[in-house]
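Q: How do we represent a protein-ligand complex in a form that can be generated token by token?
A: Start from the inputs.
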Amino acid sequence: MTTIPKIMTGAYLPGNGTVEFKEYEIPELGHGEVLIKTKSSTICGSDIRCIYHEHLGKGPEGYQTGMVAGHEPCGQIVATGPGMRRFKTGDRVVLYHISGCGMCNDCRRGYMISCTSEEFRKAYGWQRNGGMAPYMVAEEKDCVLLPDELSYSDGAQVACGFGTVYEGLEKIGISGNDAVLITGLGPVGLAAAMLCKAMGASKVIGIEAIDERIEISKNLELRKGSGIKLFDAVLKAGPDNVAEVRALTGGMGCEKVVECSANANARLTAVQAARKWGKIVLIGEGGLMSPDFAPSPDMIHDQKTLFGSWVTNLWRMEELVERIVRWNIHPADLVTHRFPLEQAPEAYALMASGKCGKVAVCFDEELTV
Ligand SMILES: NC(=O)c1ccc[n+]([C@@H]2O[C@H](COP(=O)([O-])OP(=O)(O)OC[C@H]3O[C@@H](n4cnc5c(N)ncnc54)[C@H](O)[C@@H]3O)[C@@H](O)[C@H]2O)c1
Ligand SMILES: [Zn+2]
Ligand SMILES: [Zn+2]
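Then emit the structure tokens for the protein with nicotinamide-adenine-dinucleotide bound:
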């Protein structure tokens, strides 16, 4: 039994492209709270876009300077407060990364991401301490049990990355009938490819702007050593992308498109490269649509449907961890770099450069994998 310290060192993001460390107290646990020993804490594109370079959000959407960063934590419960209903010490858990009020309509649907309570909605790593520290306090109601077959670095990606993508894919529906286009091959786009392949998509085409990511994407497999590539084709972002995708799909375009870049041109490609009756889901966040978007020819006359998708809900996360095991896939295969907490500055700088797959800050046994 390890003794739990009273003080720990955690990392926060001052908003000027650096990472700072400071000491945090490990508090007494309140009713319904658990203490998690962090094992893996992955970095999301949103951390870079909204927090690392500058603090973009405001109010309930804003990062509160000094909060322990990291909204993709996974670890093991090492202590529990009073009033536990299900979870216990020793359980390995993933967190739904936003703690909601539990009472508004969004929370009751399991979508704490869009909880409407300004007072009680708090995202881990934004308005309450997150995963870039050896321990974190979480609410039992936000925990999802991590199956034994999955590692902590598999689990870390479930909430924000894979969960977000799974939600989007469920909206557009993926099956063996589909050729799928994925625009933006950061960790979210890569997760989309892995899930689409696992769900049976018969062709997966990716588009990416950064050469290093194109190379990483070309080499990724559905399961390591299986020889089944995640992508059937990976294209460099450019003005001919729509024609290139059509050429790869018998002139038709893709049945399903998953937009994960947030880039205005890629969004236009996503809409235009969908075939008639195609379905497109927008996941990449921020920015605008290309001013060249023309709704009539680009969507209306071709009977296309456009979805927006924000994170996921709690029951779907539980369903996802079960299916990830059934599909025998490992989100951790997308992790190209692991760093100890002391090297969090290098980890964030690498993710900001884009010359990587998923980047993880790891602890204990997860560091030596
Ligand atoms: N909707 C949600 O709930 C949700 C949840 C998590 C993340 N996100 C967002 O999803 C996006 C992806 O996340 P990520 O972690 O992979 O971030 P990321 O920034 O690492 O990935 C975006 C990728 O898009 C690429 N790109 C840029 N311009 C392009 C173009 N014209 N064509 C093709 N690719 C292009 C970039 O080079 C980069 O690799 C981010 O905007 C993030 O904020 C949304
Ligand atoms: Zn995220
Ligand atoms: Zn709520």
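The chain has two domains: 7-146+330-368, 161-308. Residues 224 and 333 are 7 Å apart (CA to CA).
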